[in-house]
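Continuing the batch. This is chain 6 of the set; chains 1 through 5 are on the previous pages. Same settings as before, nothing changed between runs. Recording input and output for traceability.
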Amino acid sequence: MTPREWRFVAIASLTLLLVTSIPYVVGFWMSDADRIFGGFVYAVEDGNSYLAKMQTGAAGHWLFHLAYTPEPHLGGLFFLYYILLGKLSRFLGLSMVAGLHLSRVFSVPFGMYCYYRFIAYWTPNRAVRKLGCTLFGFTAGLGWLWIALGRGLTLGAIPVDLWVPDASYFFSAFLFPHLPLAQGLYLLFLTNAFDYISTGRGHSGTSAALAGLLVSLIHPYTLPVAGVILGLFIGVEVICRRWRLWPAVARLALVTVPSAPYLAYTVVVFWTNPAFRSWREQSQTVSPSPIHYALGMGLILIWAAVGAVYGGRSRVRHIGFLVTWAVAVPVLAYVPSSIQRRFTDGYQAPLTVLGAWGMWNVLTQLQRPRVRRGLLTFCVGSMTLTNVLLVASALALLPGSNEPIFRPTMEQRAADWLVQHAQGQVVLSSYTSGNYLPTRGAVRVFLGHGPETMHSSKKRALAGRFFDLETDDAWRRRLIAEYDVRWVWWGPWERALGDFDPGQATYLRQMYDRGGYVVYGVEGGGGEVDR
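Output for chain 6:
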């Protein structure tokens, strides 16, 4: 990589950071005395869950416990990125929201740099490298066309570039900082692992092993997918180019072995720990229809096919690996599993390398520079429209938005009071309030997140029954005792569930009452009344 290429990657990364940060900057700017921007526009519930994980770290813990379920359970060594980020944010005196978004300043450029190293490994052509980096960081599929045609917006039945961050680096960078970080580590692993397998360079093997371990700590499913892709390519090379099988397999094993204990630990915990097993069972990320994948990838599929043809004719170095990856993932995405969509993580990388190669070969055959530049601008520009739509839609959601994008100031004050008095204790509330409360401190809630609340649908029904006026007080007492509830949160969302007034219950004590938010302590649960 020349100094000019370094500058290109830096400028591209800065541009991507600025564009994806616009809705967040506007959201914080729109906060006022009555409402506060929560930090997220899309996937608010998941965003809040990451803030809750940061609060776990800020509270001094290292093991992750599910804050969104009241059942006692053993913690696990998961989400270390957010736990460490929470500790760092507290050390620096930052809010969890600020710490999360500031971490994107590192993770987004890191992912772009790792992609550029990846494409640089496959081609020395600097024009192709820069084009591939642009395609990777800024383009998506035909989701914009789906919207323009007025089709439905049901999740799972729309092009993946509109809702699956694993399928688009831009969308990953737009949402949460661990996503571009994981993609960068994945590409770093594959680049170095491939180099080690094909050449035996020791430093590449060491770098691959380290990157594989780090990416496994974020996305444990990633390394097995990489192992399958590399294994398939080794098989092809053994047959077609007479690679020696066992040395290649041994090298593949060496770069994956350091991660094996953690991967085994993950499997054991998610199958034997009741809380984590419930999470696994409720977290279904299955693949949509193939047509939605095809539309979500869009024109890059065509250009990648063109690039594969040109690359095969020109005998581009090890292009077979990129083709193997491009062909294997669509098959893996429909292997019986509850995490099928996750297997597309980083899939844009081989497609954009092949696509850039194909686009460059086609365009360089045009004699007129003006026509060549115009066609290139048109092709790349048309592939950015979905991402333009995502940013524009996020901005359109901000004016006049209430919960959950913005939170009432009085709600935040009540939540801050609660977390000071209820550290580690269970709070009963509605689902919407429960999703928010752990973002303010290390409290546990009765419910608040689909997969992370054990038996989530059942608890929704139980919470609704608790706030129903017709429910017998004896039943409420049994529910409180069964789940060791120490606090009851009563705000607008709880009033919407029913007409029950906790202030009339003899087993609840009013501890806080300001701005329409009331906190009750369960009799015998301790705590001091806010005067």
